[in-house]
Each structure stands twice: as structure tokens, then as C-alpha cells.
Design goal:
The protein has 100 residues and is mostly beta strands. The chain contains no helices and eight strands. The chain starts with a strand and ends with a strand.
């Protein structure tokens, strides 16, 4: 199922090792389940490659946030992120995505 992304914000350009890294924050709705997916079109950020992604899950509403590793794939310029790393359903997830 597609995850409901309530926020997807381009936040900054960071120069690293002579490459301009674009960082994006994305937040899912509290209805997000493990194995839901969402996509990001790299061209929307003038990017061609994913550098990295860090994911977090809000295990207790409004307080506890733990790291969670999603699965990613890039095909024809579209990054697909599959929520997961835990079997938790109906939880908010946060992602920081780095692109070049």
C-alpha cells in the first residue's frame, strides 16, 4: 500500500567532497504500516543518485523515536522507499534522504 506522506520538504544543499548534496525530510501519517511504500522523483530535486537515507519511527505517540532502516530501490529516476525495519503498524515515520 502507498504510504500517506504528510510532509515532503526540500531542506538544504550541503557541499560534500565536491558534490552538492540535496537533503529532503519526509514524514508519513500515523497510519503508515511496515511494508508501505512512497516514491520520490529524483529530477524534482535536480538529482540522479541517492547518497543515503536515515529513517526513524515514532514508537510512542509524541515521545519515543527510534532508528528504523527502510528498503530503497531506484528505477528510471524514481526512488521507492519501503517502510520497515520493524513490524510496527500505524506509526509515524520520519526520513532524511540525501541525493546528488
Amino acid at each position: 500500500m502507498a504510504a500517506d506522506i504528510t510532509t515532503g520538504t526540500y531542506i538544504e544543499n550541503v557541499s560534500q567532497a565536491s558534490a552538492l548534496v540535496k537533503k529532503i525530510n519526509a514524514r508519513t501519517a500515523s497510519t503508515a504500516d511496515s511494508d508501505d511504500t512512497f516514491t520520490i522523483t529524483l529530477a524534482d530535486y535536480n538529482a540522479t543518485t541517492i547518497v543515503g537515507i536515515t529513517g526513524y519511527i515514532q514508537t510512542t505517540v509524541g515521545s519515543v523515536v527510534e532508528e528504523e532502516a527502510p528498503t530503497t530501490a531506484v528505477a528510471t529516476g524514481t526512488l521507492t522507499i519501503t517502510l520497515g525495519g520493524s513490524a510496527a503498524d500505524n506509526k509515524v515515520r520520519y526520513y532524511e534522504i540525501s541525493l546528488v
